[in-house]
Amino acid sequence: MDPLSEVLSLIRPVSSAFRGLDAGGDWSLVYPPFGGVCCVAIRDGDCLLCREGSADPIELVAGDLALWPSREPLRLCSRPDIEPVSIMDFMAKVPMGAVAVWGSGDDCSGVGGYFGFEGSHAQFVLSMLPPVLHVRAEATASLRLSIERLMSELRVPQPGGALVAEHLAQTLLIEALRCHLNAGAPGRSGWLFALSDPQLCEALGLLHAEPGRDWTLRELARRVGMSRSSFAARFASLVGETPMAYLTRWRMMVGAERIRKGEPVGQVATAMGYASNSAFSVAFKRTLGISPSDARPSSRADSSR
Length: 305
Known about the structure:
The chain folds into two domains: 3-183, Jelly Rolls, CATH 2.60.120; 192-303, Arc Repressor Mutant, subunit A (Orthogonal Bundle). The chain is 44% helix and 21% strand. It is built from 13 helices and ten strands. Strands 1, 2, 3, 4, 5, 6, 7, 8, 9 and 10 form a ten-stranded mixed sheet that branches. Helix 8 (217-223) crosses helix 9 (228-239) and helix 10 (243-260) crosses helix 12 (277-288).
């Protein structure tokens, strides 16, 4: 698999809720943090998306789509100075797939919702995404079709609908990330933006394909046709960390998923390139904040009782 597919395969959408919005006059809706991913697509009119502490709201116009990991409150509004109402309270009585009307309507219409994810480190993966992905109208045709199909599945439940909705949610996330990458994002850092660099994308693919290999900086640079120093500098600049730090983090994420599925810790430690369980456990705890035994499904079930 390619690096983007590898990363997203570690998180699974398990819930989603989408509704339409037709707003008019003065309005402001706040999306509180909840640990998933929020999404808004504008059909007609325009509005603002405001981040807390930012003086520059994002203007969304007809055809635009915004998607963001819900780790801070964001407001969708007609003006930034309007006191917001919680989107959860406003939409509580509106059936999934239906349209909520604010005021006179007609000024701004669109669809929005959220995805909830499952996975022992879903939040760790989502934290690697940019605060907001703003996809312009010219690139959103396929995204709007996916949202409309998802709304249809939610509005009129059918046999197998839950699985279809799960796949549509993951497809929508992947397509939004693709559009964001294709649009270019100069000056940004993170694994996502590094995928637009052919040589770094190849390097990430090598690390993902063989996480347990004893990789060296020199070998990685040689495999992608760069000098050791140039590769190290570009990787750190675009990814935001050194190749070896990224490799350690990727090993722990893959290891956590394998442990979650029931694989013995010792077997996972060996597969991830560690000579001893203790060395693997130390790296695991340092990176993910929990011990390998805590990643087992039985451990999480016991701790929730």
